[in-house]
Design brief:
Elements (H helix, E strand, L loop, with lengths): L1 H14 L27 E3 L2 E3 L6 H9 L2 H6 L2 H10 L6 H20 L9 E14 L3 E13 L7 E14 L2 E11 L14 H8 L10
Antiparallel strand pairs: 1-2, 3-4, 4-5, 5-6
Length: 216
């Protein structure tokens, strides 16, 4: 049981790295990449320059961290496409390879208990964000979050508090992930009055609509 928990923790420390809600806008030849001759904060389309301001980098970093559950539940091919779509051309393939290796390791670990990876429930909630460094085209952002994992067949779910440092590059009008580092904590102590729930109970709650998502 403990080895499964460690494997899940290692996997999920890498899963989010290439995920971000914002996508490339327009075809790649029309969107300048870092280092190309284009004014920061502008998009070139059909020879014209559009001066729209991009979303702030902290919003992109928070969105990236919040995508953990989606990437964990994606299939092999769709997961790779998702990662490469939301990260820079330089970092995307590397992140996709690392994520696939970790998913394979997790699948082998869980198969020892006849577990189905498709039943794995994962949710990460960003709590606080801090822009450590930013320029017109690059940014380094820290996101403090809590990650909940309910492994199939396990007696209890897992929770991990962590700080994710996301390196971002502005490509056209979109902040794309170009680096990722995750460190444990800071972690608060659970109150003595808090009862430990089963993994099934946690998985059921994780199936509810996220509170950060519009409902109605």
């Amino acid at each position: 049981m403990r080895r499964s928990g460690i494997a899940i923790g290692v996997l999920l420390a890498l899963l989010v790295a290439g995920l971000i809600v914002l996508r490339f806008r327009g075809a790649e030849p029309e969107t300048p990449h870092p280092g190309e001759d284009a004014a920061p904060g502008s998009v070139q389309q059909a020879g014209e320059t559009v001066g729209e301001d991009p979303n702030p980098p902290e919003a992109a970093a928070v969105a990236a961290v919040a995508m953990t559950g989606e990437v964990a539940s994606a299939g092999f091919i769709s997961r790779r496409e998702l990662i490469e779509s939301f990260s820079t051309p330089r970092f995307g393939p590397e992140l996709a390879d690392r994520t696939s290796e970790q998913m394979t390791a997790l699948l082998l670990e869980l198969s020892e208990r006849d577990a189905d990876l498709a039943d794995l429930s994962v949710f990460e909630q960003p709590l606080r964000v801090l822009v450590k460094d930013a320029s017109q085209t690059t940014a380094t952002v820290d996101v403090w979050s809590v990650l909940v994992v309910a492994p199939p067949g396990a007696a209890t779910a897992r929770v991990m508090w962590r700080t994710v440092t996301v390196e971002l590059v502005l490509v056209g009008q979109t902040w794309l992930v170009d680096g990722w580092e995750s460190t444990p904590g800071p972690t608060p102590m659970v109150g003595s009055e808090s009862a430990i729930s089963s993994a099934d109970d946690i998985a059921e709650v994780l199936s509810w609509t996220p509170a950060t998502q519009e409902v109605g």
